[in-house]
Amino acid sequence: MGFLARERQVAPPGWNRWLVPPAALAIHLSIGQAYAWSVFKTPLEKSLGITGTQSALPFQLGIVMLGLSAAVLGTTVERRGPRWAMLMSTIAFCSGLLISALGVWAGQYWVVVLGYGLVGGIGLGIGYISPVSTLIKWFPDRPGMATGIAIMGFGGGALIASPWSTSMLTAFGSTTTGIGQAFLVHGIAYAVFMSLGVLLIRLPSKEFTAEKEALLKDRPKATVAFNVSANNAIKTPQFWLLWVVLCFNVTAGIGILEKAAPMLVDFFKESSTPVAATAATGFVALLSAANMAGRFVWSSTSDIVGRKNIYRLYLGVGALLYLVLLTVGSTSTPLFVIAAMVILSFYGAGFATVPAYLRDLFGTYQVGAIHGRLLTAWSVAGVLGPLIVNAIADAGKKAGHTGPDLYATSFYIMISLLVVGFVANELIRPVNPKFHESAAGTAQPSPERDEDAVAKWNEAEAADAAESAEKQDAEGAVKK
């Protein structure tokens, strides 16, 4: 089809690259509706007579399919271009919402699981990776900021969808009829909004190469002198260490996010200041705001402090904050909310920073396909996080536990996972030059190119060491 042909997606000379982020946001703000799933959990449980674990299934399957479709179709997205990918995402995601509406109306929960989780999840995966890889190509000088812009939209999707869904359930009712109508409106509205991104997205032109070099002229650290193919990337320890980092960081955040509203109510149910269900919905919106802001703020900060350092913050401080929730979280609602918001800011930032981390390690050659394969970590975490929190909470209720006791074991597990992720991040080193692509783009490494790459890594490390030494000398002088 002419409209979807890759050559028709290339920007004309003089195209403003700042028109690309709005196209990415049109997709990510829409598919980010998945983060507002917790608003539908309680109404579905009451109207269909299902458990908390069962009501998490559409969300869990959606995240599984996000990772799997991104991994399987990553190279196809790179080959066919972002416009094709965004259109396929629009069709699949919105169809999933419409199928879910039919399932609720029919009282068949398995149809909701298949519609929202399976079909909609495929739309999530395709739509997630395409704008990200395109933005990295347009913003080689600020990859962290660029990916933060797009993925900020995914995190902020619930900021729109949560109050919108709540208002629709209030207006239509929390019965099967009302829930189905809410899904129907979502499906139609998002189809229109996502189509704007399909029309606006563009790929960089050949003329952008000269501009690219000018952009990188004053930012030598942003330059990547080598590329690694997707097939070679999965053979490196760096890929799998980063897989562990992403998986455990996501598991720790998604467990709170998926059960945010009922968790806040349970935590303070027996306190002197219980939280109403309507206020808990506001808590979901606050978490979404933190999730969205963290994706841009922390990811942009990674362009300054480096990817490894910023992940030390996500994982190390995240573990400490979980410990705060575990020990004193139930003593103060504001303390609980603030700690949870910071954890969710790290959760979202981990997603936003990882494409730039991949670009630093593997180059831009097939970064979209590599990113897609890495998102299988999200698939695992999407099952693991909600399963840990929901299963332990359900078991606790059967055993007669209440309040914070329902989540204590879950929080201990999350702390452990974050510590393991911290260690994995510390073990990441530059990729062995034997995995680099040759200048011709073949899978075999070029000896000359390898030597250049090693030299550049050595120069970069020497520069960093010199910079650290200067800072230490300056600090010593001040102390004296």
Automatic annotation (TrEMBL):
Cellular component, GO annotation: plasma membrane
Protein name as annotated: Nitrate/nitrite transporter NarK
Every Major facilitator superfamily (MFS) profile domain range: 1-433
Keywords, ordered alphabetically: Membrane, Transmembrane, Transmembrane helix
PROSITE patterns associated with the record: MFS
Region (Disordered): 461-480
Organism this protein belongs to: Lentzea albida
Lineage: Bacteria, Bacillati, Actinomycetota, Actinomycetes, Pseudonocardiales
Membrane topology note: Multi-pass membrane protein
Subcellular location: Cell membrane
Gene Ontology molecular function: any one: transmembrane transporter activity
Record InterPro entries: MFS, MFS_dom, MFS_trans_sf, Proton-linked_MCT
Biased composition, class Basic and acidic residues, residue ranges: 468-480
Keyword Cell membrane: no
Transmembrane domains' residue ranges: 18-37, 57-77, 84-103, 109-132, 144-164, 184-203, 239-257, 277-298, 310-329, 335-358, 370-389, 409-428
